[in-house]
Amino acid sequence: MEQQAIWALIIFLLTYALIISEKIHRTVLAMAGAALMVMFGILDQESAVHHIDFNTLGLLIGMMIIVNTTAKTGLFTYIGIWTAKLAKGNPITLMGLLALITAIGSAFLDNVTTIILMVPVAFSITRRLRVKAFPYLFSMILATNIGGTATLIGDPPNIMIGSAVKELTFVAFMENLAPVAMIILVVILPLGILIFRKELKKGFAHQQSLMEIRLEGLITEKKLLIKCLIALGLTLLGFFLHQYLHLETATIALAGAFLLLLLTGEHVMEQAFRSVEWPTIFFFVGLFVLVGGLVETGIITRVAEEVMRLTGGDPLTTSMLILWLSALASAFIDNIPLVATMIPMIQDMGGMGIQNLEPLWWSLALGACLGGNGTLIGASANLIAAGMSAKEGEPISFLKYMKYGLPLMIVTIIISSLYVYLRYFM
């Protein structure tokens, strides 16, 4: 391995080790690691900037502005109390119901937007029940990544695969991935309730007080709410139609955010920009550059090529290796460069004796999307939820999340393995 690749790997592993130790803030570490990639000549400034996914950043900033402005109206408290009443105040039923709503939302929106919308709802409820928000947030993170797996537009890896393989339509994704996503959700939600049952039971003491809260008066700024709903509605409509409008999701999110600011005035604008989770945004910047160093030096490509060589061209073995490799890798590195590397390699396998590539594509989608549940840094939605939780005074540590996330992620990949085998190779 050439010297630059060795330095890139050392910087990457050292940065991740320090992030896991949590001795220093992860944003500082990610940006420092990114700076080292440039200083050591692994990336020049131009290529470092090239690896930053500004579509992701623009989407995050736009949705943070819209959602945080909407939160001021009391809408999320209203939704939280309405959901609680639907669940009769039962904290266990409530956890499952919130996760289900999150999964459905993530299937038809991107999972980042869904988690930004749902986290304030979780906090409005857990404060009333006087329980920790982590069990609810954790179940919603799992649900958003599982729900996002089900459709073409639910998660970036699916969008990339659908774009590269034209015959894999929106309907094809639904037919092939929605059934396994539903099965996984049905298995994972009860497991989550089982894991956190002691914490959830504490909420029963305040169940009645939650039911006694009246919905009237919870919406505090009705005029602002109307403006927020107009901006949010147009933004969500834009997400549904973005492939027909030929606009990126970031353009739509930022347009929606600035439409809202135009409708609300300068005083709201200043508060809106202060509410953006800037540490999370800069963590993403650092992370993109760190992974970019591995891409530029060919490390990701070499690993992927070696794994492909080991399969010997057998479709079943190849599918399983792609599924497990992409899942384990996506738990620790961003799945976007991983999928970008795997797509041309799978396409090349069409000329190497594998006649039907579809099982390989579905394996890649399942592994890349579900693998994100393994750690706190495995998917964008996880990091956004953690950033919002820290701002509410309940930080989520890397190790605490991984303690629950990694075993449950492995369960989802075992289910996916059985599904791929039974559906495509029996």
Mind explaining what this structure looks like?
The chain has 426 residues and is mostly helical. It folds into two domains: 3-48, no CATH class; 74-219 and 277-424, no CATH class. 79% of the residues lie in helices and 0% in strands. The protein contains 22 helices and no strands. The protein has helices spanning 3-21, 26-39, 45-51, 54-71, 75-86, 91-108, 111-129, 134-149, 156-164, 170-195, 197-201, 207-212, 222-245, 249-264, 266-275, 278-296, 299-311, 315-332, 335-349, 358-371, 380-391, 398-424. α7 (111-129) runs parallel beside α21 (380-391). The mean pLDDT is 86.
Strand content range: under 5%
Category from helices, strands and their pairing: mainly alpha
Number of helices: 22
Compute the number of structural domains. Answer: 2
Bin the helical content: over 70%
Termini separation: 41 Å
Query: Low-confidence segments, ≥5 residues, pLDDT <50?
Result: none
Rg (C-alpha, Å): 22 Å
Secondary structure tally: strands: 0
The biggest beta sheet, please? none
Give the helices and strands as they follow along the chain: HHHHHHHHHHHHHHHHHHHHHH
The coarse silhouette is globular
- Mean pLDDT across all residues, rounded? 86
